[in-house]
Design brief:
Radius of gyration: 19 Å
Strand order of the largest sheet: 1-4-3-2
Distance between the termini: 16 Å
InterPro entries: DUF7546
Number of helices: 9
Structural class: alpha+beta
Strand content: 5-15%
Shape: flat
Helix content: 55-70%
Order of helices and strands: HHHHEEEEHHHHH
Keywords: Membrane, Transmembrane, Transmembrane helix
C-alpha cells in the first residue's frame, strides 16, 4: 500500500507547482481574452480554442516533474537515439513536417507565419521543393514532451524501449488525422461520416494525448 501511495504522490502537485500553475492559467486566460477582444472570431466551438492549452499544460507539468537519471553513457545515448527517432515519427505522422507533394505547377512559397488562435498559432509554415513544415505550437510542445518522457522511460528501464514503443502505438493523436484523411478520401469529402471523422479528430487526439502522457509519466516509476 505504501508503494502505491508513493507512486501516486508524484501526481500530487506541490505548493510551488500550484503557484506556477495559477500563473500559467491566468496568463492563458488573459491571452484568450485579448484574442477575443482583438479578433473577429465569432464561430467555432470553444473547446477547440482550449485544446492547445490542455496539451501545453499537461506536457509542461509532466516534463517539469520528470527527472531522468542515466546510469551510464550508453544508456544516455540509447535514450537520446530512441527519443529523437520517436519525435521524428510523431512529427511526420502528426503533420509537423513532411515531404512536399510533387504537383506540377505548384511553386515553393517559402516561410510564412500564420496568425492562428493562441496555441494553434502563431504557426510557422514552409513549403519548399522537397520539404513542408506546419509547426503548430501546441503540437510541437506536446511531441517534444512525449519524446522527453520516452527518454526518461528508456533510462529508467535500463535500455528497454518497450514503454516508448507502446506509447507510440497508443498515440491516436498521431494516427487519427491520417485515418480521418483516409475516410474522407474513401467516403467522399461531402459525406457525413467523413465530416464526423475530421471534426472529431482533435476531440479524440486530446484525450489520447493526455492518457499517453500520464502513462509515460507513470511508467518510469515501475521497475
Amino acid at each position: 500500500m505504501s508503494t502505491i501511495s508513493t507512486r501516486f504522490a508524484r501526481f500530487r502537485p506541490s505548493g510551488e507547482t500550484l503557484l506556477w500553475g495559477a500563473v500559467v492559467l491566468n496568463a492563458e486566460l488573459f491571452t484568450l481574452i485579448f484574442y477575443f477582444a482583438t479578433s473577429n472570431h465569432s464561430s467555432g466551438e470553444l473547446r477547440y480554442l482550449l485544446y492547445p492549452f490542455i496539451w501545453i499544460n499537461v506536457a509542461l507539468f509532466a516534463v517539469w516533474k520528470t527527472n531522468p537519471i542515466a546510469r551510464s553513457d550508453r544508456d544516455r545515448t540509447v535514450g537520446v537515439a530512441v527519443a529523437v527517432g520517436y519525435f521524428l515519427i510523431l512529427g511526420y505522422a502528426g503533420g509537423l513536417f513532411g515531404l512536399s507533394p510533387s504537383m506540377p505547377g505548384m511553386p515553393a512559397t517559402g516561410f510564412r507565419i500564420a496568425w492562428l488562435p493562441p496555441g494553434w498559432g502563431p504557426a510557422l509554415l514552409y513549403h519548399g521543393d522537397l520539404l513542408r513544415l506546419s509547426i503548430l505550437p501546441f503540437k510541437l510542445v506536446g511531441y517534444l514532451a512525449l519524446a522527453y518522457l520516452v527518454y526518461a522511460t528508456v533510462l529508467d528501464a535500463a535500455g528497454s524501449a518497450i514503454s516508448g514503443i507502446l506509447g507510440l502505438f497508443s498515440c491516436v493523436s498521431c494516427t487519427w488525422p491520417v485515418v480521418a484523411s483516409l475516410v474522407t478520401g474513401i467516403a467522399g469529402a461531402g459525406s457525413g461520416f467523413a465530416a464526423m471523422a475530421t471534426s472529431g479528430s482533435y476531440d479524440i487526439s486530446t484525450v489520447v494525448f493526455v492518457v499517453t502522457v500520464v502513462l509515460l509519466y507513470w511508467r518510469p516509476t515501475i521497475r
